[in-house]
What does this fold into?
Amino acid sequence: MHRGNRGITLIELVITMVLMGIVAVVVANALSTGTKGNLVTDNRKESLDQARVAMERMIREIRNLRNSTSVTTSSSTQFCFTDTESTLIDYNYSNPNIIRDTGNCAAGGGATLATNIAATFSFAYIKANGAAEDPVQFSSVTTKRIRITIPCTISGETVTLQSEVWPRSL
It folds into this structure.
């Protein structure tokens, strides 16, 4: 054997393998964190899209409430009214969906407007002074606006939208 051709020792080989293992764990951890962050962002975006579509539709239609006496049913989970075009519109919560029905205020029928909605979905009926009606129901005399709260949860990621509607005829 030549003097310069020494081989590698077992200790050098083990140290190299341990160092490569540590580098691999650090790289895998970084990739995993990035992937989880991307998944969380996607789930929040999907939740936001669900809630936004429902919120925009409800705001647009409730704004066209015919008058203060055209509300048929009002509670924290259901709002049924007649709009300016004489269409009876009902929004109700049927876990985990928001249902929109026309021509019928009975819960159970209609088309799904949004899915994955949490049980804290609610309508609140607000007086001119900003206080909520108690009990939670529409008053043709004192209610001036309607607050809608829509919490949407997809894969553990919850996004909550809240808006107040000032119907044109109140």
User: Anything to note?
Assistant: The CA atoms of residues 1 and 144 lie 98 Å apart. The first helix runs from residue 10 to 63.
